[in-house]
């Protein structure tokens, strides 16, 4: 079987959507819109969105999306593998494997240091992906009857994000996530901050016209907060109070790493840390000479270093 791997072109979009719909089969195929949303991202590189042609017809697609990721306090060129899909009629005949391996070659030429993904533990390790490299890092605490939260000001407003907010939000983000391994730096476009799914709300919080924070959350479930950043401790309590009052939730979980300086904003609350790695959270080292990536993977595997925190950007949101 002759499999040819090449970059996607606009004429392939419809077939790529069809393959994702067929491969991920379901009533709602989030991967179709996910691919479109990623194409609108500021870091999108068409040469990393690959199709596999079998006898001249597109039968598979993989998207590697580039990010600047913090590792050891330095920005590392990284990509996220996904989604990947092969027409069910052509699965298990090497199409997926060819897409991944050809992708890795291109990534190495372009100077990427690591590729990460969330996927099947029985598939990706054969391509060099190491399991249990990341998972979740949440802090959990009661928000009901919590004095520090009750005492916070009510004078804050929630509104949608505007392009003119992004510079300021990046500054708040740096304070919150910038000192954590695997933190993905959000892009500087509006679509890097807001979700394409109807359940996930992305909001800026303001006090006297001043931006004090940003939250991307499932409006039906406060235990599903995708990103939470606030300017300081006071702003953190104010936003928590706002969220508490707008739902009937009694407890809350936030994606915060225990080593982040932002953890200090919660020092008065009795929180529990839920830090886990998952088999499905995998990393592949693309540059064997990059000591930071090699050391991170080895130390997390040996259990002498805490796994970092990957906060997936909104393009990966599923309803
Ligand atoms: C996963 C997928 C992209 C692999 O592509 P493919 O062309 O079928 O894969 P290859 O032919 O290169 O490799 C086939 C091998 O992958 C394994 N494999 C395929 N899908 C798998 C899955 N969902 N979980 C675990 N292993 C899987 C096959 O069992 C086969 O293993 P073997 O070589 O030991 O027999 C394809 O099966 C697919 O589109 N699946 C549905 C969408 C999906 O799940 N995407 C990945 C989300 S993480």
Automatic annotation (TrEMBL):
Gene Ontology molecular functions: aminoglycoside N-acetyltransferase activity
EC number: 2.3.1.-
Domain of life where this protein originates: Bacteria
Keyword Acyltransferase recorded: yes
Domain N-acetyltransferase per the UniProt entry, residue ranges: 3-150
CDD domains: NAT_SF
Single GO biological process annotation from the record: aminoglycoside antibiotic catabolic process
Pfam families in UniProt: Acetyltransf_9 (PF13527)
PANTHER family associated with the record: N-ACETYLTRANSFERASE EIS
SUPFAM superfamilies: Acyl-CoA N-acyltransferases (Nat) (SSF55729)
InterPro entries in UniProt: Acetyltransferase_Eis, Acyl_CoA_acyltransferase, GNAT_dom
Keywords: Acyltransferase, Transferase
Name the record gives this protein: GNAT family N-acetyltransferase
């Amino acid at each position: 079987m002759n499999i040819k791997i090449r970059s996607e072109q606009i004429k392939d979009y419809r077939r790529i959507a069809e393959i994702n719909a067929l491969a991920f089969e379901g009533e709602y195929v989030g991967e179709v819109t996910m691919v479109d949303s990623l194409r609108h991202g500021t870091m999108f590189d068409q040469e990393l969105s690959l199709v596999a042609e079998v006898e001249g017809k597109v039968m598979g697609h993989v998207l590697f999306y580039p990010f600047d990721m913090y590792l050891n306090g330095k920005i590392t060129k990284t990509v996220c593998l996904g989604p990947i899909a092969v027409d069910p009629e052509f699965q298990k005949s090497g199409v997926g494997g060819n897409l991944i391996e050809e992708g890795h070659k291109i990534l190495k030429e372009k100077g990427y240091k690591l590729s990460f993904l969330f996927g099947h533990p029985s598939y990706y390790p054969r391509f060099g992906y190491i399991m249990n490299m990341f998972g979740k890092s949440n802090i959990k605490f009661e928000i009901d009857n919590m004095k520090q939260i009750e005492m916070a000001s009510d004078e804050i407003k929630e509104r949608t994000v505007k392009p003119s907010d992004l510079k300021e939000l990046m500054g708040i983000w740096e304070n919150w996530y910038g000192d954590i391994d695997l933190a993905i730096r959000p892009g500087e476009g509006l679509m890097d901050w807001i979700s394409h799914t109807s359940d996930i709300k992305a909001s800026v919080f303001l006090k006297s016209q001043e931006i004090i924070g940003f939250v991307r959350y499932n409006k039906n479930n406060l235990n599903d907060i995708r990103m939470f950043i606030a300017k300081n401790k006071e702003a953190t309590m104010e936003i928590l109070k706002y969220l508490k009052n707008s739902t009937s939730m009694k407890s809350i979980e936030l994606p915060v790493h225990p080593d982040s300086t932002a953890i200090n904003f919660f020092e008065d609350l009795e929180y529990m840390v839920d830090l886990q790695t998952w088999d499905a959270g995998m990393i592949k080292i693309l540059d064997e000479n990059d000591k930071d990536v090699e050391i991170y993977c080895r130390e997390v595997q040996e259990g002498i270093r805490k796994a970092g925190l990957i906060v997936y950007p909104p393009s990966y949101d599923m309803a």
